């Protein structure tokens, strides 16, 4: 998603370089690279908590102490893997600083295209980023620092564009940077789950082109040269909460039952460790039961996961809306973001599980594939009902729905990593208004980071 970003100062060093006197790679360098390449696959397939240093060592063909000779801890290996991923992107697309805001967006489009050519690395990054929403995850500080730096670089490019006259004035550069990052991350999750369900590169290119046209003074697009530089409150949600209250009441009514206690305990433990890294014993302990007592209600870990996913569906606002016979509208999707911001624990658990489910063989993969397809269809119906078969900028309702869902997912991840820096409802609301507007507004405020060009 971004240029190379070093780990936070608190992160341990990833080890000695192992270079010889003449600067060539030694056997130690080759071994380190082999370990990193194998670790990429294991972190992508199982996440951080469930990945095993012993299995990584076995696949590399060395002993576990051999791995520990190069990487003293699993955390250190994970950080080296993340550095490796960022270095590949940096060498390919960020060898030099973009000269303009338009060029910065072009660079991000090329980066999305590159990410699509590296599915293993992208799945690993998506999995670890989702897991890192838990403040106790060893990569939490890395991703928090990374997002702060990346958002700052995007914001700097946009601000420079406004100051030079390349972009028009009145833009909230910080809010727009968050939106761009959210679209990238959200599309990645959908693509990792099912690559044939969304054209990740095409969708982001269309978004970037439409965005640039909306903020350049003469409406020039992504592939056109920019002009020469010039000389020296969230919408009310009372109705939504009233509708969603039914779901919360249902949960509260069952809160005293052992089954509900176990499900809520699983929600917390899965949020912290993901599905594969969460032992049943930890869930049982959190619920105040023995492991045997837990198995009386849920005979396997997979059955517990299914029960927890069903719990989420029972309190999910979009599901209530659909089953209640109410036609979905853009305002309902915005209100969903407001509602989600009131339940960070649930949001964290499902961000972790959605990211983890992109891995092969994950028991929740089918659930999330089906759920994303259903929510895209629901959001597409909302857009078609309000705006017709062609949205502002030429998007189809299906394309707009994929982008809207991407913004929502990406904003959720940013918000979980740093709630003080990101307003989840405001970011989703601003993008929803962008999709719904046909006229060009006079100015852009902090609540409305971009505006579409006139049709």
Automatic annotation (TrEMBL):
<feature type="DNA-binding region" description="H-T-H motif">
    <location>
        <begin position="279"/>
        <end position="298"/>
    </location>
</feature>
<dbReference type="InterPro" id="IPR001647">
    <property type="entry name" value="HTH_TetR"/>
</dbReference>
<protein>
    <recommendedName>
        <fullName>HTH tetR-type domain-containing protein</fullName>
    </recommendedName>
</protein>
<feature type="compositionally biased region" description="Gly residues">
    <location>
        <begin position="17"/>
        <end position="26"/>
    </location>
</feature>
<keyword id="KW-0804">Transcription</keyword>
<feature type="region of interest" description="Disordered">
    <location>
        <begin position="1"/>
        <end position="26"/>
    </location>
</feature>
<keyword id="KW-0678">Repressor</keyword>
<feature type="domain" description="HTH tetR-type">
    <location>
        <begin position="29"/>
        <end position="89"/>
    </location>
</feature>
<feature type="compositionally biased region" description="Pro residues">
    <location>
        <begin position="1"/>
        <end position="11"/>
    </location>
</feature>
<dbReference type="GO" id="GO:0003700">
    <property type="term" value="F:DNA-binding transcription factor activity"/>
</dbReference>
<dbReference type="InterPro" id="IPR050109">
    <property type="entry name" value="HTH-type_TetR-like_transc_reg"/>
</dbReference>
<keyword id="KW-0805">Transcription regulation</keyword>
<feature type="DNA-binding region" description="H-T-H motif">
    <location>
        <begin position="52"/>
        <end position="71"/>
    </location>
</feature>
<dbReference type="InterPro" id="IPR039538">
    <property type="entry name" value="BetI_C"/>
</dbReference>
<keyword id="KW-0238">DNA-binding</keyword>
<feature type="domain" description="HTH tetR-type">
    <location>
        <begin position="256"/>
        <end position="316"/>
    </location>
</feature>
<dbReference type="InterPro" id="IPR036271">
    <property type="entry name" value="Tet_transcr_reg_TetR-rel_C_sf"/>
</dbReference>
<dbReference type="InterPro" id="IPR009057">
    <property type="entry name" value="Homeodomain-like_sf"/>
</dbReference>
<dbReference type="GO" id="GO:0000976">
    <property type="term" value="F:transcription cis-regulatory region binding"/>
</dbReference>
<dbReference type="Pfam" id="PF13977">
    <property type="entry name" value="TetR_C_6"/>
</dbReference>
<dbReference type="Pfam" id="PF00440">
    <property type="entry name" value="TetR_N"/>
</dbReference>
<feature type="region of interest" description="Disordered">
    <location>
        <begin position="216"/>
        <end position="237"/>
    </location>
</feature>
């Amino acid at each position: 998603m971004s240029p190379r970003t070093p780990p936070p100062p608190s992160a341990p060093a990833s080890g000695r370089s192992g270079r010889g006197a003449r600067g060539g790679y030694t056997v130690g360098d080759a071994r380190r690279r082999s370990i990193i390449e194998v670790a990429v696959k294991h972190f992508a397939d199982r996440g951080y908590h469930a990945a095993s240093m012993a299995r990584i060592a076995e696949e590399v063909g060395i002993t576990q102490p051999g791995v520990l000779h190069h990487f003293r801890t699993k955390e250190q290996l994970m950080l080296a893997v993340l550095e490796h991923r960022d270095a590949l992107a940096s060498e390919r697309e960020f060898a030099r600083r973009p000269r303009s805001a338009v060029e910065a967006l072009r660079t991000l489009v090329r980066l999305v295209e590159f990410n699509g050519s590296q599915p293993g690395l992208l799945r690993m990054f998506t999995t670890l980023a989702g897991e890192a929403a838990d403040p106790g995850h060893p990569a939490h500080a890395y991703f928090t620092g990374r997002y702060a730096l990346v958002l700052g670089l995007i914001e700097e490019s946009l601000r420079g564009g406004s100051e030079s006259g390349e972009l028009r004035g009145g833009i909230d550069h910080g809010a727009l940077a968050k939106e761009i990052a959210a679209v990238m991350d959200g599309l990645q999750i959908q693509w990792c789950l099912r690559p044939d369900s969304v054209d990740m590169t095409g969708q982001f290119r269309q978004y970037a082109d439409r965005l640039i046209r909306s903020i350049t003074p003469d409406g020039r697009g992504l592939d056109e040269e920019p002009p020469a530089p010039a000389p020296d409150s969230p919408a009310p949600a009372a109705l939504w909460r009233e509708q969603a209250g039914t779901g919360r009441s249902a949960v509260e009514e069952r809160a005293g039952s052992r089954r509900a206690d176990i499900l809520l305990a699983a929600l917390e433990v899965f949020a912290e460790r993901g599905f594969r890294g969460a032992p049943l014993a930890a869930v049982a302990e959190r619920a105040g039961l023995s492991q045997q007592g837990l198995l009386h209600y849920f005979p396997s870990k997979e059955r517990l996961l299914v029960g927890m996913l069903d719990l989420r569906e029972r309190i999910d606002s979009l599901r209530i809306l659909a089953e209640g016979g109410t036609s979905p509208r853009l305002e309902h999707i915005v209100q969903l973001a407001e509602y989600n911001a009131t339940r960070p624990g649930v949001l964290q658990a499902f961000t972790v599980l959605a990211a983890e489910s992109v891995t092969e063989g994950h028991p929740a993969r089918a659930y999330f594939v089906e759920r994303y397809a259903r929510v895209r269809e629901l959001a597409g119906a909302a857009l078609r009902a309000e705006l017709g078969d062609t949205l502002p900028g030429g998007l189809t309702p299906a394309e707009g729905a994929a982008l809207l869902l991407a913004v929502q997912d990406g904003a959720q991840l940013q918000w979980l990593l740093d709630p003080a820096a990101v307003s989840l409802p405001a970011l989703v609301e601003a993008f929803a208004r962008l999709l719904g507007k046909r006229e060009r507004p006079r100015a852009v405020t902090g609540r409305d980071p971009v505006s579409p060009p006139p049709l």
